[in-house]
Amino acid sequence: MLAQEDGLTGLLNARTFRQRCDAIFMLAKRHGRPLALGYLDLDGFKGVNDSFGHAVGDEVLKAVASALSKRLRASDLGSRLGGDEFAVLLPETDLAGARTFFTELHESLVKLAGTNSWPVGFSIGVAVFHHARANPDDALRYADGLMYKVKNSGKNNIFFEEYASEAGGG
Predict the structure, then answer these.
(1) What is d(CA 141, CA 163) in angstroms, rounded to the nearest whole number?
(2) What is the pTM (predicted TM-score) of this model?
(3) Which residue, of 11, 42, 56, 162, has the greatest Cβ tally within 10 A?
């Protein structure tokens, strides 16, 4: 299991996440089912490490992973991609389901940070795919790009986009 999990958070590591995404994307494509992929980045995380130390930074990452894990269904995947970046794959999830999941996750993370006086926010990009026409690498790039749109428009928010065509356009 250690080769498949992130040592700090217990979530899937990036390599295992990508491998499992391949299988889920193939099934979703075969059966014409939607799925949602979220890319989450902590805003201001470097400041936590610089001001409070890496031990507190590690506690923040573990708490984020725990909050995320509590919301995942058995069929969902959660991963720490590295540093302060996380990814979530929600099979059988359309835009409405993705909005519910990620809005509730964001609210719980903001509350968690406030309760612990952690000066961090959470920028999340969510790409929803109909008929799973993208591959996992492209899907991660789309979700990452959406997360950067959040960062460039003020941070600590969520941006959703639907993709319906083979080329990834909505």
Answers:
(1) 13
(2) 0.93
(3) 11
